[in-house]
Amino acid sequence: MTSTTTTSKPLHLYTYPTPNGIPVAAYLEELKAAYPGVVDYEATHVDLYKGVQKEAWFKKVNPVGQIPALVDYTRSRPGDDDKKDSDSQGFAIFDGVAILFYLAQNYDKEFKFSFNPVKEVEEFSEMVQWLMFTGSGLAPRFGECRYYRVVAPGKGSDHVVNRNVELLRNFFSVLEARLTSRDYLVGRGKGKYSLADMRAWPHIKFHEVTGIESLEEYPNLKAWLERCFERAGSKNGFEVGKA
Ligand SMILES: N[C@@H](CCC(=O)N[C@@H](CS)C(=O)NCC(=O)O)C(=O)O
């Protein structure tokens, strides 16, 4: 893979099945099933272990050089409308949460997996809060724990390794408490499966690589993970972007 692919599908996802990549694939799968004939996409595997994400062609899609990234071929970048260059075709979005919001705004008009920011002000705000919780807390802490355990074992002091696991456990406990008497993180009653859940569950799914080997002490979290993962969209999304 040395360049972006022009496809017949309106949306093209560049990804790898990591906890940051899976939420976008899972959402696209949910949207595809919920809006048949309206939402469709193709996916390209970006080989993170070969450094494909740092190649020049990919950095035109995501200047940060990371997955996930999405190109929407039904739109163009502001200012690019008159360009003929194929590089300028499509509107590119980087960062998992930004992509989820973009898809919600443009492809989930009935708020099936989101909340109406005007009519459901509190729910929408809570969804943003849990998205931020994962994006700025759970995900980076997960990354640190995995790094010292899988990528660079023995390179971190016991203090650093233990502190990261302790902080991650705290995030697990926050989720455990939130999920008391609820099925999903946000929504009235028992809640509704939304972006907030989609962004978070893949991190919990991979808990073993962080050093938290069992979820037995987090029964609500464990049940929620099973509930989220039993969805076809989750199972399909989990496979997207594999080599
Ligand atoms: N904040 C970003 C983080 C993305 C991220 O960390 N992606 C990782 C994979 S999970 C990646 O591409 N790593 C390869 C690299 O940084 O070179 C997001 O949520 O999209």
UniProtKB/TrEMBL annotation:
Among Pfam families, the record links this protein to: GST_C, GST_N_2
Per the database record, which ranges form the GST N-terminal domain? 8-111
Domain named GST C-terminal: which ranges? 120-243
UniProt xrefs under InterPro entries:
Glutathione-S-Trfase_C-like, Glutathione-S-Trfase_C_sf, Glutathione_S-Trfase, Glutathione_S-Trfase_N, GST_C, Thioredoxin-like_sf
Q: Do you know which PANTHER family this protein is assigned to?
A: GLUTATHIONE S-TRANSFERASE GSTA, GLUTATHIONE S-TRANSFERASE-RELATED
**Can you say what this protein is called?**
Glutathione S-transferase
Q: Which family does it belong to?
A: Belongs to the GST superfamily.
> Which PROSITE patterns does the entry link to?
GST_CTER (PS50405), GST_NTER (PS50404)
